[in-house]
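Reproducibility note. Readers wishing to regenerate the assembly model reported in the main text can use the exact inputs given here. Chain order matters: entities are listed in the order in which they were concatenated for prediction.
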Amino acid sequence: MSEQQPLHPIACQLACLLVEEQLGPLCKEVCDLLLRKETQSLPELSRGTGCSRFELHQALLVLIQHNCVQPYTLVHDEGGSTPAQTVFQPDLRSILYRFRSARCLLHIIDTWGHIDSPATSKIAECIIEGLLENGRLTSDQLCINVAGKLDAGCKNQTPHKSIKRTLCQLISNHYVERAPPADLPMPRVTVHPKALSKRGGMSSSAKAAADQAENVRRLDKVGYGKERYRIPNDLRLDDDSSDCQSASKRQKVNHPSGTVGAELKGAPILWRVSFEEFNRRFRHDACVELIDQAKDGKAAAVAAAILQKTRQFETILKEESSQPTSAGIIKAALEEMKSRDTELPDIPDVAEALRQLEDDDLGLINSAPGGPDGTTYQIDLRFCISLTRLKAMEAIVRQRFGRLGLRIWRVLLLTGQLEQKSIKELALGDQKEVRQLLYGMLKAGFMAVTDIPKTADRAASRTFYTWRVQPESMTEKIGIDTLHAMFNVASRLSVESVLNSELLQQLELENKAIFKTHGQQLGRLKVVRDLLESSLLRLDDTSALFNDF
Amino acid sequence: MAPKTELSPLEERILKVLRGHPEGLADEDLNEKLEGTTSEGRVEAINKLLSIHRLSILQTSAGLAYKGIEADEALRFKGLTQDDHLVYQAIKDAGNKGIWTKELRYKTGLQQQQQVTKILKNLEQRSLVKSVKGIMHASRKLYMLYELQPAKELTGGAWYNKNNFDKEFVDVIQRLTYKFIQDFPESSLDEIVNFLQEKQVSTEVLDAKDIASIVRTLDFEGKIEIVDRDDVDVFRPALLAIPETNPFTSVPCGVCPVISECTPSGPISPATCVYFQKWLEF
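Running the prediction on these inputs yields the following structure tokens for the assembly.
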């Protein structure tokens, strides 16, 4: 869990829309207040929403169950004389991640067969599906849920042991994590240094107390970080697979004080989908796709092998680059992948393929000589993502402002800041058209203009105006605009449903006569819904690229 | 037409000598070539030739020099006032970049616009000067000597036709250049120039500088890449092409000019959006 980030209004609106649609208006009301106020105690929530205590409890339970809200323990007095208070914070990222559920499931369906036998692929899919549907579940609840899904219409019962075994594998692959406990200290709110200086300096005692509180907070977080992917004894004892055994050995090393098996205060362990891990895998996918486009399928397979092999060394989502790996290890990883996925291309000389990739002018893969196993290779993940974003930005500029617009944008990106006359000459466009495009892009937030007055009166006729492109701020702008577009598409979807609510009710009642009388209308509604829903999924991909990777 | 002025033998001789030196001849050199004449006679003849505009004085690096003017050309200057000559000289100094009336007034010291306009009209009627319009300031008339061709800065070069940007022509040259780079990856600028000159796609002569600007636009469009090979820039199709579509711009909001003003309860909203309406028409 990172430090608390400021919430953008459009992201909050989108989250509210999603919560209302999936969890009902009461949950939306509570969520809306939390998104506006960020942190609220139970009495504050009660006052803010005007709900009864029972309704509030119900809404909060649903929201916590679905990982939309996280409770924290707020300790007012470090000495311990004042009782601790539970406060609630919205988890905006988790709420918005509900749009990515289908992609997570697809990822498991596509990749699990390559990680383990295809037989367990269905179990893994059902586990992830169950967790996405129910938010957080204990292992026993999950077993019942998954068995129910798998055994529907089947005489044979799926043994819970094989479900638990797959769950263990999902945990050891970090796809599933423990839900954070309710007594974690609240994340620190990031305050700008200037705001801190405005408030005046803290006294030495206050500073010492704040430092101590921060240390406690950090220790608790580290504690959760260690527990997050630990497989508990009851799951481990049920399972004798080598995967779990090796995971168990690793965890024993992490817990030298003999705390293995000592669960968090005896509370039942709740499991949830690890969005961080899915984001990491999607980030890897984006890098592999870029290498596939820039080079070919073989290069992409090599990149995928490097990322699969070095995944365990990644500790943060936005890693700069993959861990340096030798050609031998990459070759072994490729052979392992090939044994599970026969569609992968044959690469007889991996070392040569790596050299070709490294010699590429783009610089997606770097090498360093002198490792214990010879030259090591690593993928520049940050550069890959920047390049993917850049290409997406260029596509957006071209579609929105045409070829000349793209030329102008790239002229400024490559040359820095220029005057309108120079832009016109370099981009080779009509003066009037160039001016219109420049102002259009300025309005869209794709460009910035600086005025350099020649005289103190700052008269426009005696002022230079220079134009420039700022990729960082444009990334942020497109990220927000994508969320805005998602909100609009989701709103439109609701509007279409409301407009055709009577028709849909009839359909739910299985009134077959409706097909005869309103067949065309139903057909149109289906096409519209399909288009809007698929657009939402694809917009979420763009949102992930600009907001999460 | 005014009657032709009779010239003395010495005056004819001076003009004959100067005809052999179109770049001008210094005073000392002229004296050498006019052997057997007195200095008074020479001065008188030169003054007369200057007064009837058959001679002009040039300022060269070596000092003052004389240049002969042909009779028909001299006829065009006949009857011009001193102010007319002043304006003509200022226009001549501006060369092929031209000069506009505001600057002309400043350079000649003539304050009244009407007077300058009258002089310019007179000079234009005599085909001594002409007015042109530049691409930068379409409404501004620039004056230059009648026989000069406007500079590229004024006309915009090969990519402008009658002061208008020739988009179609640029597109054609761009397409041909891109096709050539696709067919012959890692080709140099000279190779592209030769190809286009052989193709004879335009009556306009396209030099290496013109083609370089076209190649640059292809780079800015992300279609090609410039690679350094042994200190020579060569061009090849881009390794990483820009995607044709993007999910963001595939929905109306991605290209909407008023997305920032779109709110659920405002006058522009997803529920009432005309772009959505059009998009969802089936």
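We highlight two features of this model. The first strand of chain A starts at residue 40 and ends at 41. The two ends of chain A are 16 Å apart (CA to CA).
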